[in-house]
Design goal:
It contains 3 helices and 6 strands, in the order H-H-E-E-H-E-E-E-E. The protein has about 130 residues and is an alpha+beta fold. A hairpin with a 2-residue loop joins strand 3 and strand 4.
């Protein structure tokens, strides 16, 4: 596994369980940009800077008991890491989708650009 792949995996793992926001923030460049395209969870596309991304992750973690990312494939070319994964979360309480204690699951394609060992950009495509 390349150093860039290791950074991406650390980022995804830091969001699992109850989440480690400090660990997540430490892996993101100061000028980090996240772009998430439309899904049934989000009218998009939505762009977030580093602070907005951390806040979005914090709010997401508050809504779930835990979450996990199952990597299906990961490839790297220079400073770009692409991966497909299954995201699974266990809801804490009733959400805007009207479910209580249900399991949410999506297939995702994510693309990361890294600079100096930090994630500078993350692009997310959620596929159900």
């Amino acid at each position: 596994m390349s150093c860039n792949e290791e950074t991406v995996v650390k980022y995804l793992r830091a969001m699992e369980g109850s989440g480690d926001l400090d660990a997540i923030a430490s892996l993101l460049a100061v000028d980090f940009l996240q772009v998430e395209y439309s899904s049934r969870f989000l009218n998009g596309p939505k762009q977030r800077n580093k602070a907005q991304t951390i806040d979005s992750i914090r709010r997401g973690l508050a809504a779930v008991v835990s979450q996990q990312h199952t990597l299906l494939d990961i490839i790297t070319e220079r400073d770009t890491v692409a991966c497909t994964l299954v995201w699974r979360a266990y809801e804490r309480s009733e959400t805007t989708l009207g479910r209580r204690n249900s399991i949410l699951e999506t297939n995702n394609a994510m693309f990361f650009k890294l600079r100096a060992g930090l994630i500078a950009r993350q692009t997310i495509y959620v596929c159900f």
